[in-house]
Each structure stands twice: as C-alpha cells, then as structure tokens.
Amino acid sequence: MEYPLTIEAKGDGTTDPPPGTYLRRAGTVVTVTARPAPSADFTGWSGAASEADDVVEVTVDGNKTLTAAFETASWPGKPQSTYLNPILPGDHPDMNIYIEGDDFYITGSSFNISPNVEILHSRDLIRWERVSRVVDPAWSGLEASTSAGGGTWGGFIVKVAAGYRVYFAVNFNQYFAEAESLAGPWGEPVHVEPVGPYTPPGEDPELVSFDRGTGYDDSVFVDDDGTTYLVVKAGQCKWNGGTGGEENNFGVNLLQKLDPETGQLSGESIDLSFVNWDVENGGCGDPAANPDSAVEANWAEGPTMTKRNGFYYYFDSTHTGCGGEQYGWRSATLSSNPEDWTPLGSVLKGEAPFSGAQHSTAPFQIADGTWWVFSHSYECESNWRGLGRQGLLSQVTWIDDESGAGVPVVNGRLGEPAPAPALPPSDIPFLLPVNDEFTGDKLAPAWTFYGNMPSDRYSVTDRAGWLRLKPAEDETRWVIQKDALHAKAMIVRMDFTPEAEGDAAGVRLGNAVPEQDLTAFPTWVHPISQEVSVARVRADAEDRIRFSFRSVVPVLNADESAYEAVDATEISFDAPAPAERTLWLKLVHGKDHEATGWFSTDRLTWTQVGEPIEIGALEDYDTVNMGWVGSQAGVFASNASADFDVFTYRDGFTAIAAAEPDQESGTEVVSSQSAGPVLGGLEDGDWAMYGSVDLGSGGVASVEIELQASSAKGGAVEVWLDPLAGGRRVATCDVPATGGWETWTTVTCKVSATGSHEVYLRAKGGSGELLRLASLRFVPGKNG
C-alpha cells in the first residue's frame, strides 16, 4: 500500500526533495532537508515532524504533510556599540557643528576644492550624508582666490527667521549666503562689513589702528538669550609694537555681535586677543621674545565657544599640524578683561596615529546628556598624512567644582574602538567616495573640481549614462573626490582613443593641480605636486597604456628668497593599447604604499602595466605644502574629450584587507606572522563593515565571495549587504577548524550581487573567539 507525503515550504526557502506530493510505500523512511535562501533562517518543522534540526526523517505510514518554515534573517536593531575613527575619513578640516533637534550638521574649509562650503548631515554622529554646497565656483568673489590655498576657509550655520545663513571666509574676510533650507538653493554671497579699525590693547587709537578684516576659520556662538556672536580670529601671536607704528601679523581674537536681521556686525565687540599673549596658555607670545619656530607655531586659531552651567568656555588651537593642541579658557561673564578668564590649559591633545587632534568644534551635548566634540588631525605616525586632516569624534567629560565650573576632558582612544554615542541607528551610508555609473542628469554631490570648472568643460547629458570631460587644447580637466582609504582599487571604463601627441585620459590619484605655478608660492610653504595615474595616451605617435608617477618640486634661488624653477621627475611604464576603443583601467593602491596599473577589455581578465611603483611620498606629505588640501581621486582628460561610464573607488573584485574595516563592533586587529595585520577577536555576533564596495557594474556581477580565514575550532561568517538600510544577508560561509590561527584557508561561498554596497561580515558560532580574517574578495562573472 502507498501513502502520500506532502512537503511544503513557507517563507524564503525550499526543501530537498523539493516541495510537492510524493507517493511512498508504507513504512518507507524519507529524509528531508530544509534549505533556506541566503537571506533567510530555517525556524523548524511542523506537521509530520517537529524537530528543529534542518534534516529530518519521516516514516510514511499514512497520509502525512511536512512543512518547513523559514523567516527572513534580520540584522540586530540595536545601536552601534563602538565606533572607529576617523568618522569622516579623508580631508575634512576646520569643522563647525550646528544642531537642530535630532539632526546634526557640519561645515568646514573647502579651500580651492569646489563647489565650496559643503554641508553634511547626520542623526547618529557616525554616518554622514551630503546636504548641499553653498558657493558656486563661478561666484565672482572667488576669482582672486582659486589657487591652492585659496577658496573658502571655515564655515558655520546660523538659524534665522527666513531660514539659514552660512558664513565662510575668503581672503581672510567673512561672507554669508542665505537659503530657506539647508538643502539650498543658496543665494549670492554677501560680504560682512568690518565695524572699523582695530587698536591693540594699550595703544592710542588715534596713533595706532589697523583694518584687520573679519577673520578666518571663525565660528559662531549663540548665548542663552539668543544673542549671536561672530567668534573671530585674524593673525597670530602678540602685538609687539610694530616698527614705526606699522602693522604686523599680530593675533586678534574677538567676539563681535551679529545683527540677526541683516547678518552684519552690530558694532559691539568683546576683545579676547589676550589669548595670544603667552605660550603657556596656547598663544605664541611676543615673536621677538620667542624666535623659536616651535613656539611661533602657537597661533590661538580656530576659536569656538560653548556655555555650560552658566560658564562660558572659549577654545582655540595652537596650530593645524601634527603636534597641535587645543587650549581652553573659562569665565562667568563675557568680558574683555583677561582677569575674568581662567586658563584651562591643553584640553585636547591627540594620540597616535592622530597626534594632531585639535581645531575642534565647540563641545556639544546630545539627548542622553553626554558631551562630544569633533576635531581634525593628520595620521601623523602612520605615513598617511596625504589623506589630509580627517574628521575625528571624541567624547567629552567634565571635571566640575562645587560651583559647577568645569574643565572639559576629551577622551582619547582615537586609534582604537571607543563607545559609540547612544543614538538610534541610522540607515545613512558611511561617508566614503562613491562608485558611479553617471546615470543622472547632473554629477553626484560627491564629485568636485579644482577651482572653477566651466560648465562647457564637462557633461553628463551629452551622452546619457556617461561623464564627458571636454578639455581645450593644451588643457587638463579633472573630476575628483576626497581620497579616504589606505588601500583600494580604482577602476574606470572609458571610451577614448588618443589621436594627437599628448592626448591622454584615465584614472588618477594626486595631491594638487600639476599645472599650477609652484614658483609663485611663498617660501614658508614647500609645495610639491605629485600624482599617480593609469591612462591611455598618445606618445611617440603610438597608442599606449601608461602607468606613471610624477613629482614636481620647486627649487629655491641662491639666497632662498624665492622659488626660481621646478624639478620634475617621472617614473612610467607603457604597454601597447588594445584595439578596442572602450576599455577598463585599474589603479591598485596598497597599504604598503605600492601602486600597480592594469588594463582590461572586459573587467574579467587584466593585464599589468610594468612594475609596481612606490608612492609613499604622495601618501605622506603635509597638506600645508600644497594649499591645505588632501589627496584627491578621480578621472582626467588632457587635450581631447573622453567619456567615462563607470568609476569605481573601491573594487570588490580586488582583495580588501580585512584589518581595514570602516566601522566594526567587537573586533580587534591582531598580528599574524604569516599574514600580517588581520581582523581578530571575532566572537558570535561581532562584525566588521567595509563601505562603498562595488560588487558589479558595467555588465559584471559578483558570483562568489572568497574569505581568507583561520580558526582554532570552526565558525561561520554571515555576509550582509546594507543591513542598516534594510538590506539582506546574501551568504553564510562556514569556516572549518584550520588547526590554529597561523594556518589559513580560502573559504568560498556563492553570492549574487551587483552595485555598490556596504559589506558587513558577521561572525556566527559558539563561545569565544571563532575565527580570524585576512582578506575578502568577491569573484566576478558576467551579469546575465
């Protein structure tokens, strides 16, 4: 006799044998296996069996139904418990923060990277998105300030009745623009008029007075009664009497009241220039009395203010480079009298690798009562200063006396995981350069230019789905984003054939505009222009693929009073270009400061161009030497138009070092004798995130993931894409016991994905440390 066995599957999964009705002889034992989809979990059987195991045996001794239940796997909804600095990787100097309800906004210096005055938004202080850029690069006020080091300095937001004002500096004077929304559009910038000449303390205003402008790297302070002050900084050090009454670059620090109606200064001013008078409290004193260059580096700049428990707190920075510090002052009243202000000494001093942490925002309080601050710093000890002054988040604690007067103490731990702000999790992607297929009718807001890029020099509408660069003859044009990672593989797909000698186009990483006149820089700046690129070029009447590194250094004249020439060097390798007009170029950039160049006709098979090139000089320069701006990544074209329809900043098909997560929870970086720094400490539920990973574009898709792993007892790695934004688990990779932490194996599991994603690797298993990871890499295949 035969009986029917009906197998069902509810949810995202199937069974083996597949769901259906099967006739089986009485007494037959049927083995059924539950097979959840990658994004689902098996939750149990019902009907003919109730076991939780995914494999069950059913004896057919009558009509029976067996149902396998599956449910979509969900990412834990709790807030991130720890975070890693930098929160804003890449160049984010001179930040100021504005808070409105549960929303946080940051502005800072753009210099000659345009459009200028970028506004960022966050809800959790960890994940930031671009809201708008305030200043059009074609604005006439920038015409005399577009070279490296020019552009806009600082920036801060003020709420007004009609919407918002954003203030910023050009040529050491303040301007503001207005809009109804922080998303813009923004009006034409308005100059903030100085209220009159400035007389240093102790001098006769009829004999000694100077036009000091309205400052740079200023901020704003709003008192409890709504009175708004421009917190001004102009110049450095202490007034020393000058020579014959002439002006020197003495430091002026002022609180100047703003008229809320006009946005202009009202004329009322509180003079805090005494912060420049001595070295101990963060100024540099009298330059004549302190000729040592290290002392003269104390500038009392980047001033900010906050108020707490009825006390005013004023902060300024010694200087903006490695070794800089933040100093503080406290007063019960706003007064120009130095006796009313208590110096608090150094309240923020960075630690390796961010030992230049300073130039901070005003400390601010969040909903749970904790206080926080953003500062900027180079990676001073790890040979990565070329990334610029990166954005760091730190918690602030206060040491109070009985009166409520406090001293802010900024917690360290800048180079390791720290407890995260207790704010709801955000679905905003972590801020990194974007991968782009140029499908919109304008450039994505991550893209920028050096100075003013005329609209007739680029287009995303001339050819739908392509970015077209259109340089004039003997001209190079760049479209760029902030460099932000120690290691990555940048890729472009390009339609371009060079016709004339010098025609070129490709992918580039560089620290300045190579064509600017380096001999025009002042001698206190030591400019150097460097770039590494992979390009298709016309050279010696041949169509070539060129991988090159170029460095341009100015040369001083005999008396070292001016730069008189430049010394240019280049390392390059060429290979014959393929016959195809459309091809892929790849620039791989490793943690060891080595770069390699590649080309392909299908993004699946790659040909290396020449040998690796060491580019450490590009990655460890001080941005003060090249106009304050960190390295920029992007595409370029010289002399002739070129079309790009894919730009990838972080290629997922090139190995990613697991020890370089952008954010993490519960992990640690450990040293392996055989694999170098690796991601360790992975217990059940711990995870690491790698942002802005391209898993397939231009007709190529991810079909597998490879994990280089070791494990003492075995575990598993769940692969999630964009879980905070409602994304899914795409794979669970079992990692076998390898016999020890120094024995590595490559684990491969199937993945089907395209597009740019945040990739989360989450450990799963028993107790204790489950596994360690050296690298991850997605395996490409044709899409469809």
TrEMBL record:
Ribonucleoprotein listed as a keyword: no
Domain (CBM6): residue spans on this chain: 654-779
Top-rank lineage group of the source organism: Bacteria
Keywords, sorted A to Z: Glycosidase, Hydrolase, Signal
InterPro entries, sorted: Bacterial_rp_domain, CBM6, Cellulose-bd_IV, ConA-like_dom_sf, Galactose-bd-like_sf, GH43_C2, Glyco_hydro_43, Glyco_hydro_beta-prop_sf
Pfam families: CBM_6, Flg_new_2, GH43_C2, Glyco_hydro_43
PROSITE patterns per the UniProt record, alphabetical: CBM6
Family per similarity comment: Belongs to the glycosyl hydrolase 43 family.
Descriptive protein name: Family 43 glycosylhydrolase
Native source organism of the sequence: Sorangium atrum
